[in-house]
Amino acid sequence: MALDLTVRGLSWGPRPDRRIIEDISFDVPAGTTTAIVGANGAGKSTLLRSIYRHNRPLSGQVQVGGRDIWRLSAREVSRLVAAVLQEGAPDFSFTLREVVAMGRIPHRNGQPRAGADEAVIDRVLAEFGLTDMADRTFGSLSGGEKQRVLLARAMVQEPQLIVLDEPTNHLDIRHQLEIMALLGRIRATVLITLHDLELAAAVADQVLVMRGGRVCALGPPGETLTPATIRTAFDVAATITEAATGRPRFSFDLIS
């Protein structure tokens, strides 16, 4: 079951006088996808770290399904929220199945995996087209395959909210399309950072645009990804045209 995300007055920095994000508020309705876009250094990844309970906010609240994540235990939050990060996965000396199975740890309370855990793992492996590869070592996989495995590990957690930081980064076009197709089948609320504005417009119900650690626009893609907003957020001039698919296409020029 997907749950809504509510963020109110969120600020974080390494110390109170050096805040990287400031006074951020937004809602992600249950079962929808929100894409976060902005220039490098805008605060996108920092925002995500507070939402998946890595950075404790200096001020503000993060609620999933009306529950403040900082009033819950780490185990309770890991049953609600899963994260797939862009830092790059280590080359685990585990099989693909073993890596995916790690997603069941929050549900096991220190006990060995039970039949119900194995059923969830088998289902997700099948949904992600990984069953026939389950005995391969994680280190032998391609970049796109590794990203599919990490996404599958997150889904084995059975989260109500999944947070993804640039999941298509460093992937070729085919693997980008595969990852985005998998995201379209996820039965959870999705919060995702993306550099590609066309991808954001294609997959998101709403887009949150950041600049300088603050929100500068929020709403449906057609209302937020405008030339004026793009100029403000990225310091470039944008031209937007409609492709044959009905989706917007963006071209950019430096501002002289």
Automatic annotation (TrEMBL):
SUPFAM superfamilies assigned to the protein according to its UniProt record, in alphabetical order: P-loop containing nucleoside triphosphate hydrolases (SSF52540)
Segments forming domain ABC transporter: 5-237
Transmembrane segments: none
GO molecular function, one term: ATP binding
Keyword annotations of the record: ATP-binding, Nucleotide-binding, Transport
Pfam families according to UniProt: ABC_tran
Domain of life the protein comes from: Bacteria
Gene3D superfamilies attached to this UniProt entry: P-loop containing nucleotide triphosphate hydrolases
Parts forming coiled coils: none
Stated family: Belongs to the ABC transporter superfamily.
Entry-linked PANTHER family: ABC TRANSPORTER ATP-BINDING PROTEIN (PTHR42794:SF2), HEMIN IMPORT ATP-BINDING PROTEIN HMUV (PTHR42794)
This protein's name: Iron complex transport system ATP-binding protein
Taxonomic source organism: Pontibaca methylaminivorans
